[in-house]
Specification:
104 residues, single chain, mainly alpha, elongated
């Protein structure tokens, strides 16, 4: 392609196409790699997700802890007693209340 023979409109169109191709290059390569891996997994009698996830469904299980403390004026604001104290707990403690006063 001789760039010198193109007019400004054609050069700008080419520039936009090149910018688009550069922006989507990695996504296209990932899609190609995924297709190759899915085909190989299927050839071996598996799905790619079964091989990648090790046959497990979902990721690491996260257990939730029941709340132990609630805001005295807004019971929807709770704290389990683990991790950093919420600001409303710190404010209550600074005001002279104890954790027992906030217990559910």
């Amino acid at each position: 392609m001789d760039l010198n023979s193109l007019d400004l409109k054609e050069l700008k169109k080419l520039e936009a196409e090149v910018r688009n191709r550069i922006a989507t290059y990695e996504d296209r390569k990932i899609a190609e790699a995924r297709a190759v891996l899915e085909a190989k997994a299927k050839e071996l009698g598996f799905s790619l997700s079964a091989l990648v996830d090790g046959g497990k469904k979902g990721g690491k299980a996260v257990s939730s802890v029941a709340p132990k403390y609630a805001h005295p004026e807004n019971p929807s604001m709770t704290w389990s007693g683990r991790g950093r104290k919420p600001k409303w707990v710190e404010a209550a403690l600074a005001a002279g209340k104890s954790l027992d006063d906030l217990a559910i």
